[in-house]
Design the sequence.
């Protein structure tokens, strides 16, 4: 883990600085989090950078997450005063869902503008989130044609590029890449499970063992079925022994690394079913509890 801790801070500082600079050009920030790891995929310093800037929390990849847990998380964030949508960003209703939610967040401000005679003002937004959370996918689904806005407007003069959507949003075309924080080693494991960080950064065997500990408690049958293990496999084996057993079942003899790699691919592609490895009560040490 030490390697990761040394590697990220410079990137994170730069990303947050860029975010601060761009914030003044937008009305709202779309903060993306991965529904499978809603805490580990958030950046704890974002709260401070955003201050009072309106925000919409978008939980992505709900098709890969446990639906019951997604509901719990949505409530949890809403109870903190955040506006939240949870979706598979690739769905065809994404533009309508996101635009409606953004309009709701900004309803008062837009009503005040309309009173002053400003009609149909586009909502300007910045998409932010950690790598792999779905930023580009969201942008691509919101913007049906690639139309860059030009002209003498704030942002444009600074050579920022904006993308217009048919639903009257204007999106900064470069998403803000945030970096997670790794003080809690579970954060690293969870990010690795979902593929948010490079595989070279964490020992895959360790990630798979953390993952098996989760499946032992919450979805034991998914592993039994996928790797054709005997029904009593969990009861008679430790997590390490189970990894060895799966390695043999996969026909990889004693090549545990290869088995770990295969298991992670299965997990990330949803072959082990939907999963959400974090719950609010886990207190994964990275997000400020207050908004
Ligand atoms: N199943 C599923 N996959 C998604 C969803 N959103 C994005 N993806 C996939 O997740 C992967 C990463 O998505 P990107 O849009 O490239 O993520 P990004 O945040 O732009 O990533 P970086 O460029 O690394 O910062 C891609 O394979 C997407 O197809 C979703 O809601 N559900």
Sequence:
């Amino acid at each position: 883990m030490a390697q990761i801790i040394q590697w990220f801070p410079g990137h994170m500082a730069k990303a947050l600085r860029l975010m601060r600079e761009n914030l003044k050009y937008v009305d709202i920030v779309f903060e993306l989090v991965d529904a499978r790891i809603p805490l580990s995929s958030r950046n704890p310093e974002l709260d401070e950078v955003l201050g009072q800037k309106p925000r919409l929390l978008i939980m992505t990849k709900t098709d890969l997450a446990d639906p019951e847990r997604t509901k719990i998380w949505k409530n949890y964030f809403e109870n903190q005063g955040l506006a939240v949508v949870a979706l598979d960003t690739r769905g065809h209703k994404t533009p309508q869902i996101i635009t409606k939610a953004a309009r709701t967040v900004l309803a008062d401000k837009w009503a005040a503008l309309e009173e002053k005679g400003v009609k149909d003002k586009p909502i300007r937004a910045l998409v932010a989130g950690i790598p792999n959370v779905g930023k580009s996918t969201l942008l691509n689904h919101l913007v049906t044609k690639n139309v860059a806005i030009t002209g003498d407007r704030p942002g444009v003069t600074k050579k920022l590029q904006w993308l217009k959507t048919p639903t009257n949003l204007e999106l900064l075309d470069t998403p803000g890449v945030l970096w997670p924080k790794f003080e809690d080693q579970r954060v690293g494991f969870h990010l690795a499970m979902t593929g948010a960080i490079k595989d070279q950064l964490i020992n895959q065997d360790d990630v798979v063992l953390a993952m098996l500990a989760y499946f032992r408690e919450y979805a034991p049958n998914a592993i039994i079925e996928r790797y054709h293990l005997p029904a009593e496999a969990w009861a008679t084996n430790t997590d390490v022994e189970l990894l060895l057993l799966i390695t043999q079942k996969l026909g990889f003899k004693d090549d545990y690394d290869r088995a770990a790699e295969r298991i992670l691919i299965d997990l990330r592609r949803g072959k082990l079913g939907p999963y959400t490895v974090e719950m609010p009560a886990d207190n994964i040490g990275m997000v400020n509890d207050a908004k």
Observations:
- The mean pLDDT is 88.
- The CA atoms of residues 63 and 248 lie 31 Å apart.
- The radius of gyration is 21 Å.
